[in-house]
Amino acid sequence: MKIFLLAVLSYIIGSFPTGVVIGKKFYNIDIREHGSKNMGGTNAGRVLGKKAGIIVTVIDIAKLMIPTYLARRYYGIDIAAIIGACGMVGHAYPVFAKFKGGKCVSSYMGVMLVLNPLSALIPFAIWNILKYVLNYVSLSSMIACVLSAFLFKFFSPENQIAFYVMLAAAFFVIFLHRANIKRLLNGTENKTRKKQA
């Protein structure tokens, strides 16, 4: 029962619509009506500015670290991965924002920071490189999440359940990017850098 309650708590915390709250409170803008209409850090940065984008991203990372940490401390790493995944579902389908949320990249990394920090920090560094080389945030993010799962397996081979949960979570992130994938295939996806005329 305690694990179930922690899972519910994780979902509720994950549901906190950071980008929407910051946009409305400090900029009088609902970011769900602009840009990609997503409430995550990337769209917040695009609509509200780089500073707001960073703040939204940091909060979205931190909010899922809390229930994941509690689960790891009291129930172990495998349960922590499951609890973190529940929070990701909350971020993607938030009860406080009509079940239309973000794409869980920051949330994923927040969970992984608790499970195995290197499995989050290395992909974050690679994400920054890929973002520059590939010129697509969405593609770089999907690659980083899948890479993170396999790095976790490398660093923590004994935690098989946690690995499969985080691998499934990485594919959940890809699923949430299905519109981006379609635009990538059509050549209409937003680029990190615009071509100079």
Pick out the low-confidence regions: none
> How many distinct domains?
1
Structural class, from helix and strand content?
mainly alpha
- Summarize the helix and strand pattern as letters: HHHHHHHHHH
Q: Portion of residues in helices?
A: over 70%
Task: Estimate what percentage of residues fall within beta strands.
Answer: under 5%
What summary fits the major beta sheet? none
Q: What general outline do the C-alpha atoms trace?
A: globular
What oligomeric state do these chains adopt? single chain
Mean pLDDT: 92
Rg over CA atoms: 16 Å
Query: How many extended strands?
Result: 0
| Count of individual helical segments | 10
Give the termini distance in whole angstroms: 60 Å
Q: Can you walk me through this structure?
A:
By secondary structure, this protein is mostly helical. It has ten helices and no strands. It has helices at residues 2-14, 18-27, 41-48, 50-75, 77-92, 105-115, 118-134, 137-155, 160-176, 178-186. Helix 5 (77-92) runs parallel beside helix 9 and helix 7 packs antiparallel against helix 8 (137-155). The longest helix has 26 residues, at 50-75. The mean pLDDT is 92.
Condensed summary:
The protein has one domain (2-186).
Provide key terms for this protein:
197 residues, 10 helices, mainly alpha
